[in-house]
Amino acid sequence: MKYLGAYQCTLDAFVESVEAVAPEQEWDLDQAVKSLIEFWVKNSDSIGYWKARLLDAGTENLLVARLADVQSLQKVFESLFQEPG
C-alpha cells in the first residue's frame, strides 16, 4: 500500500505519482496504471466532484490517494474492527 499525492486532480498527475513509487514498491507498473485508469473511469462522477472542490479551495492544496492491492487493503480494514487485545 502506498499513498500518492498530486496538486491537480488529473489522471496524468496520478499516473506520474504511480510511476514515481512503483520501482521502490516493486509493483508491476503496467498493472498499477491499469488499476488507476479503471478506477478513474468507473468513478468519474465522484472524481469530477472532488476536482471541482479542489478548484474551489484555491491553489494551496494536495490531493492524496491510496493505492493498494485488495488483500493489503482488506487487512487494514479488518484491523480497524478488531477488539483491542
Describe the structure.
The chain has helices at 11-25, 29-42, 44-57, 70-80, and strands spanning 2-6, 63-67. With 85 residues, the chain is mostly helical. A two-stranded antiparallel sheet has the order 1-2. Helix 1 (11-25) runs antiparallel to helix 2 (29-42). The longest helix is centred in the N-terminal third of the chain and has 15 residues, at 11-25. The mean pLDDT is 84.
Please state the average pLDDT score: 84
Biggest beta sheet attributes: 2 strands, antiparallel
Sheet/helix structural class: mainly alpha
The stretches of 5 or more residues where confidence is low (pLDDT under 50) are none
The number of helices is 4
The outline comes out as globular
Radius of gyration: 15 Å
**Roughly how many Å apart are the termini?**
25 Å
Quick recap:
By secondary structure, the chain is mainly alpha-helical.
What are the SSEs and their pairings?
Layout: E1 2-6, H1 11-25, H2 29-42, H3 44-57, E2 63-67, H4 70-80
Antiparallel strand pairs: 1-2
Helix pairs in contact: 1-2
List keywords for this structure.
single chain, 85 residues, mainly alpha, two-stranded antiparallel ribbon, 2 strands, 12% strand, globular
